[in-house]
Amino acid sequence: MRGSQLQLLQGTLDLLVLKALLFGPRHGYDVARWIEATTDGELAIEEGALYTALHRLEKRGWLASEWGASEHNRRAKFYELTREGHRQLTARADTWRRYAEAVFKVLAAAEANA
Amino acid sequence: MKDGFQPIRRLRRRRRDLDEELAFHFEQTLSELVSRGWTERAARDEALRRFGDERRWRRTIERIDRSRDVRRRLTEGLGTLYGHVRYALRGMRRAPAFTIAVVLTFALGIGANATMFGILDRILLRAPEHVVEPEQVRRVLIERMHPASGERTNVVFTTYPDFRDLTQGTTYRVAAFSTRDVTVGSGLDAERVPGALATANLFPLLGVQPALGRLFGDEEDRLGGPNVVVLGHDYWRRRFSGDPGVLGATIDFGYGPWEVIGVAPEGFTGAGLRRVDVWLPLHQTQEIATGGTYWYEETGRNWSWLRLVARVRADVPLATAEAEATVLHRQGRAAQIEAGQYDGEARVLAAPIILARGPDAPAAASVARWLGGVSLLVLLIACANVANLLLARAVRRRREVGIRLALGVSRRSLAALLLTEGVLLALLGGATALLFTHWTGDFLRSLLMDDVHWAGAAAGVRVLVFVALLSLSAGVVAALIPAWQVSRAGVLDALASNSRGVAGRSRTQSVLTVAQAAFSVVLLVGAGLFVRSFDRVRALDLGFEPERALVAWPVFDGVGPADQIAFFDAATERLRAHPGVEAAGATVGLPFFSGYAYGLSVPGVDSIPTLPTGSPAFHAVDPEWFDAMGMRLSKGRRFTEADVAGAARVALVNETMARHVWRGADPIGACMHISGEDACFEVVGIVRDARHMEVLEGESMQYFVPLAQRPIENAPEALVVRTRGAPHEFLSALRAELTGLDARVRYIDARPYREFVDPQYRAWRLGALLFTSFGVLALLVAAVGLYGLLAFGVAQRTREIGIRAALGATRERIVAFVVGRSLRLVALGILLGLLIAALAAPRLQDLLYETPARDTGVFGVVALVLLLVALLGAAVPAWRAVHIQPQEALRAE
């Protein structure tokens, strides 16, 4: 745990969750650990918000859920991308990338002119 | 699983799932932290910290889950419905005969209801069109003692001075109107159209806005005002093709040109329901029409001709307004009350604007209400029939059902499938019914109340909505029983049985058969009672013969009495010479049309008695008038051409008058003084009794003097013509004959005499006709249902019957086996129906005439008819059963 974590930008969580599920079904705990590990714990994500996002995306039909057995043979709820979820992930990732690149360009230009 | 309230079960399941999901999450977090060396306590705190505000997140997630559930169920439901509809449609296409039978059955039942709803909606449920806030609008009646009978009656027509008294009220506003036919144009092209004279405040009082131009105001509705007219929408479209340029045009009603200033909105009929083609300002028109203002003065208190309508202030209780009006009314009549000439207890009543809800509702409205109930009964029979058919089919599809159940289709969705099918069939029936009512509706409506203006687009929409709702519920009702049966049937039971019926089904069918028979009996008993009443009323001897008579009365335009008399003389002469005429005579005073009473004194008789029908009615008639009317003399001599003015004055009295005035003594030779004249009219004969104003009135006193000797010098009012052929065929010939006689006669109005008498038979005619139609309809539906059931049963049991035949069963036994049970059920239904009818019929008593509500003849005939129809329905299946060949039957399955 670091002293200061980054607050999440609006709408980013959905994207992270979708991406976390790109490599196959996971349960909520797994999704949380994966995001934490991948971002080196830089992002401050309340796990409650994470579960809310999972349920919200399921309601929208981007995720499907199923009860299954965990690695320790415990009953757990697994989430999985639907076809629509794949489509959304591609579209959103693209948007996010273009957005970030645009912002980087501005930041880079500012440094050069300084 | 099955028990518990659905939404609560779903809520519990969502909570359980979420609990489990989060419990797993916390356990995982905890075990990982502990394995990394955290203490149990610190690990728990850390897990909770990472999760955030648990209660808040839970609430959010639960909300999301709930809406997810709702959305999912909706999608699934629609998908299932779509599937059901497709399946049902496929089934319907596969069995077209069945589909047609069911759709027609529904169409008959729903059509009967749609028609009756259209009628009841207009006369009972809705206020007249364009009346704003109709609850506050009331028809003004005056309840007072009838001077002759001593009974309290509600008087609809009032006088102008009485109206003026009431206008001083502060708790309400009041307007007056009078409907009458007016003549447009002149000569043979002239047309009589329904008109209304109205005070200008009638329009704002009702809240109506013109469709075109403007409505007349106080400055036009006054004595000596301008001649202006507002056209009815219907008339504007018919005569002026809906031309907006009609404003400023003039119409000839007689009395000079009248300028069109506006058009009333579509369907506007004022405070009543009768069509109005022209609206005229009351004060101006009345002054011209009567050629004076005596109706306007205090003397007008003897002439009741106005109908009043009031809008009671919203903040005032009805009783307060009535009390204020009553005080004003009695004040206005104070002098007469003082003199004992008017009832001091007279009260002003504010009756609902909807006539059929008021104390003076016509009998036809009451019959219509009954018929509304009866049509529901017809629909119930139809539903029972459809239920039976669906059930029979469901049994045939038992194997299919069993297989579906075994394949995991839930019973609920099977039942839903049946319900979908029923509703679809009913909706098809409803659509067919709409076509059907389109054709029959007009006929029925005009039969019911021909003076009601039925048009109105809003009414169409209401009927449409009604039919849709009714179809929906009829479909559900009809499919409910089969659906219930199917959902109860066990899988194995269904699979194991061949397609023979089981006890549950046949019990349900038995109940339906009994119910159908019982309902049919109830309807037919109603029909029988009305038919009998109608017959007995029709058979009544009126004392005259309206069948071949017609009445003609000329509409004069500024012609004095002397010239009017001359016209009648010439007209009578002309008609008598016509080959199509048997007799013709002019008259003052005409049964069912107009009555007059003058002061009368008879020497030797202290006072002329009064009967409930009033004091003796005066008639002044041509000698040939009695022939034209078909009235006969019972004693003495009739009038002759010798009884002219100046000759000895003579009179005839009717039997009732002879009995009541002379009390058994022979009136012939007696003397009567009419209207205070000194000269004496000598009674020369007695006329057989005839009805005066009503088919069902008590006896009435009438007397007659020769037209030439009449004591009051007014012109005759009408001609009675007895034709050789049918009266209505003579109408145009009569108009042509008389129109040329005098250019100042604007219009000759002529109608078959029946038109004045027939409306009084309406309630019985209507009851007889509609009860019979509905009854026959019900019988037909029930008979077809019974036939279908038996035929189906025979087809189902072919094998069994064949075995019985092979084992040597006699024909009688086979017939008894096939139809015996059903016929016993019908017999039970008949008994039940007779019982219900016997309990319900007395409520009809007021509408019947000289027919006891439990008329044994009617009950007997109905029972017999039903039994006969049942036997007929059973005959063919029985015949088929008897002719089953055992060998073929055994091979059948």
Rg of chain B, nearest Å: 38 Å
Number of strands of chain A: 5
Structural class of chain A: alpha+beta
Q: Give the largest interface.
A: A-B, 19 and 24 residues
Radius of gyration of chain A: 16 Å
Instruction: Summarize the biggest pleated sheet of chain B.
Output: 11 strands, mixed
How many DSSP H or I helices of chain A? 4
What is the number of helical segments of chain B per DSSP (H or I, 4+ residues)? 26
Using DSSP, what is the number of strands of chain B? 22
Give the topology string of chain A: H per helix, E per strand. EHEHEHEEH
**Mean pLDDT level of chain B:** 86
Helix content of chain B: 40-55%
- Kindly report the average pLDDT value of chain A: 86
Describe the structure.
The complex is a heterodimer of chains A (114) and B (893). Chain A has 114 residues and is α+β, with helices and mostly antiparallel strands. Chain A is 57% helix and 18% strand. In chain A, a hairpin with a 5-residue loop joins strand 4 (63-69) and strand 5. Chain A is globular. With 893 residues, chain B is an alpha+beta fold. In chain B, strands 1, 2, 3, 4, 5, 6, 7, 8, 9, 10 and 11 form an eleven-stranded mixed beta sheet that branches. In chain B, strands 12, 13, 14, 15, 16, 17, 18, 19, 20, 21 and 22 form an eleven-stranded mixed beta sheet that branches. In chain B, strand 1 (137-145) and strand 2 form a beta hairpin. In chain B, helix 11 runs parallel beside helix 22 (762-796). Chain B is globular. Chains A and B meet through helix 2, helix 3 and strand 5 of A and helix 1 and helix 3 of B.
